[in-house]
Amino acid sequence: MLLALLALLSLSSARVADTTVTVQRGDRLEMSVHTGDITIHTWNRNVVQARGSDGEAVVLARHGTTISIGSAQRRHGGDDDTDYEITVPVWMDLSVTGVNGNIRITGSEAGIAAQTVEGDVVVEGGNGVISLQSVDGSVSLSHGRGKITLGSVNSDVTVDGATGQLAVETVNGEIKLGGMDSDDVDANTVNGDVTYDGPIRPAGRYRFVTHNGDLTVSVQEGASAVVSVSTYQGDFESDFPVTTRGSVNKRFSLTLGSGSARLELESFQGTIRLVRPEGAPSHNRSRR
């Protein structure tokens, strides 16, 4: 009876060890999943905790400073179709890859690399190098800070309240950049609109390009920039009076203030608009 009880306690301890591991600063999380959603939360404990859907056993393993997560089913040769719910320290760098499934990360204060094929990527937070990619899903980032690269092929990319260097690209989707604080932004899509809301910083560099879509860029009072506009079959509109130079194939430029920043706007057959920030008065609209 005693031996049986000890064996049961030993098995219980092993299961706990499979789902929880103590970590220290410098450790990072890596995981790759074929099928299943990945949801990552954060807390202030130096512990990684993972749970699988429907009671599926989850295996945590350490390789040097890397913590990896997988399902016991996959380890034993079965199909990997588990949904994961994981909690990590706020400081832990994350590298997450999926094929068929969504990825959602909230509350991180570290670097994040997340990519999937058939699914959405939604991240709230992140600090450092942030790279989010999907093929057939949307990509969304809010309140990230650092060097940020976002991309999708067949869906939209949305950013809200990000700070730092930003590069965004999609093919068949819109790009929506709101509440930005950056002096280095590059946004490019083929089939979709591009919207930017944020201050134009002195000496900043901003480039917005779409082939089949409209561009809408907010420009605050007192902004200083040289604005280059290129549209072949589209129009140009401004919420405030501007003086343009050049007109070959609708390629022209204008200068705001002393022209310290550079703002490049390009749409082959869409309308390019300069607008006041939300809530600012709009009058004397210029059109070309």
List the helices and strands and how they pair.
Layout: H1 2-19, E1 20-22, E2 28-35, E3 38-43, E4 47-52, E5 58-63, E6 66-71, H2 72-75, E7 84-89, E8 93-100, E9 103-108, E10 112-116, E11 121-125, E12 127-134, E13 139-142, E14 145-152, E15 157-160, E16 163-169, E17 175-178, E18 184-191, E19 194-196, E20 205-212, E21 215-218, E22 225-231, E23 236-238, E24 244-248, E25 251-256, E26 261-267, E27 272-275, E28 286-287
Parallel strand pairs: 2-6, 2-8, 3-7, 3-9, 8-10, 9-11, 10-12, 11-13, 12-14, 13-15, 14-16, 15-17, 16-18, 17-19, 18-20, 19-21, 20-26, 21-27, 22-26, 23-27
Antiparallel strand pairs: 1-4, 4-7, 5-6, 22-25, 23-28, 24-25
Report what the structure shows:
With about 290 residues, the chain is mainly beta. It is about 10% helix and about 55% strand. It contains 2 helices and 28 strands. The strands form 2 sheets. Strands 1-4-7-3-9-11-13-15-17-19-21-27-23-28 form a 14-stranded mixed sheet. It has a 14-stranded mixed sheet with strand order 5-6-2-8-10-12-14-16-18-20-26-22-25-24. A hairpin with a 2-residue loop joins strand 5 and strand 6. The chain is elongated, with a radius of gyration of 24 Å. The N and C termini lie far apart (about 90 Å). The relative contact order is 0.09. The N terminus is likely disordered.
